[in-house]
Amino acid sequence: MVETMATETESGFAKLGLDSRLVERLTGLGYEEPTPIQREAIPPLIEGHDLIGRAATGTGKTAAFSLPILHSLARSTARTKPTSLILVPTRELAMQVAESVAKYGQPLGVRVLPIYGGAPMDQQIRALDRGIDVVVATPGRALDHMRRTTLKLDAVTVVVLDEADEMLDMGFAEDIEAILSATPTERQTALFSATMAPRIKAIAVKHLKNATEIHVTRDPVPAGELPKVRQTAYVVQRQYKLAALGRVLDAEAPAAALIFCKTRSEVDELTEALAGRGYRPEALHGGMAQDARDRVMRLFRAGQANLLVATDVAARGLDVEHLTHVVNFSLPLGIENYVHRIGRVGRAGREGVAITVAEPREQGALRAIERHTGQRIEYGQVPTAATLREKRLERTKVAIRETVAAGELDAFRAMFGSLVGELDPTDVALAALKLAHRARGGDIDDGPDIPVVTAPPRGERSPRDLPPPRRGAFRGPGPRLARIFISAGREAGIMPRDLVGAIANEAGLPGREIHSIEITERFSLVDVPEDAAEHVIESLNGVRLRGRRVSARRDRQG
Ligand code: AMP
């Protein structure tokens, strides 16, 4: 049996040449190893090369372009204007990327600002005035700020185009051109895109110089290499992930489960939380000394622990004969890793079980895994507290039957005799059942109710795949929505009732069909069902609101 585990040598991130404070930060965040795209993209970016990266989300590409930016900020002195600009297609991504940059750059005191449409302009202007190092922006809003000269790009040394294909799909090509031409020509440029359509290549040819090209592949898995595994995903809001896992484990009662987390910190937290719920979990990660890992593996192999919580790195090469379940408490980075993980069960013709606990925003990633593997992942309903209670009662019943069948009860006969001398025999039996059930953990608290998340119909793309709600996105239960931009806002005296009234009168769409209304200084945004969007736009175009003729179109900022 071969067990190759990563040993505690120099961190993989240090080897890439990153500033030691960043390496320390990543260790602190529990990142064990760079992902393939990080390994390939970080060194050329640190050296100042332009780069074309073909990679989808979930590969760790945000850190791949953020860390080199932070590395160079760590080396620069007092800055007044933004030195890095990251362009992204949607406001959600702007927030997410800005959050990641701030997280990684925390020890450097880096100032990051997401700027996107739909949010108040003045707040963004005040933040820009105070001084920002890294701007993460949607192209439309970046251009707005440039026109008002509240965003100055003459000190920019790095531009990242993230999800370039999405930005082009959304009609941002001209905006991107305008933004790039306002930055110094000697800047470094990195372009990331899931696809390399000719128009993406054209941008690269025009704006990048001697770019290093990297491609993180996702070739379909040959059918013969796929393990025989029953795959189920439980989709719950983030705060219910642990409760959901607890219930699923209770229902499945795995003989031996390997539970995967993305980081060391997540392994430690989950191990502790599971222990608090009465399980006997053991943790395994690269931050542990070799003898501690050996002890954990001995316990797990001997069946003294039935849950092993591990990172991908620590579990590499691990071969456990009696493993029945693989659990993804976090989705892995990259689809190949999903296949590696679930390949741990279902060996030698036995059917294994793979369980994934996912957040609603990860449904797109689940779809991508299905497409990649050609296998279906069922959506499971997290067992209710009542179901679990029933199951536990059933197990106690089975245990009683087995104990009776096994005999050897004579040691208790005298005790029973003396008890029935004073008590009703049925009461004695019931009390004994109660004690037995409790001793088996039958009366544990199942925790809070877990709200059901309805899955989008198959074939429909989820918000993570798609910039919501421009092309009609799924937003929890309910219809697909489209966001409509209307060219009048507070400045024109527009109130929500004006919009509801106009949409009802002109388009015949009742108020209850309008899902949200946002009124900013100069414009308004209204979410309506996707299938009514075109009609609403046509009906509103040219209509007068508060005396002002308005135009309506699909919102570009998503
Ligand atoms: P991305 O593909 O950039 O959207 O990243 C996906 C997720 O993986 C994010 O939650 C990151 O925090 C996380 N992540 C990125 N790189 C690593 C790494 N090397 N180790 C562990 N987690 C990572």
Automatic annotation (TrEMBL):
CDD domains: DEADc, RRM_DbpA, SF2_C_DEAD. Signal peptide: none annotated. Residues 11-39 form the DEAD-box RNA helicase Q domain. PROSITE patterns: DEAD_ATP_HELICASE, HELICASE_ATP_BIND_1, HELICASE_CTER, Q_MOTIF. Residues 458-468 have a biased composition (Basic and acidic residues). A motif (Q motif) lies at residues 11-39. Belongs to the DEAD box helicase family. PANTHER family: ATP-DEPENDENT RNA HELICASE RHLE, ATP-DEPENDENT RNA HELICASE RHLE-RELATED. This is DEAD/DEAH box helicase. It comes from Gemmata algarum.
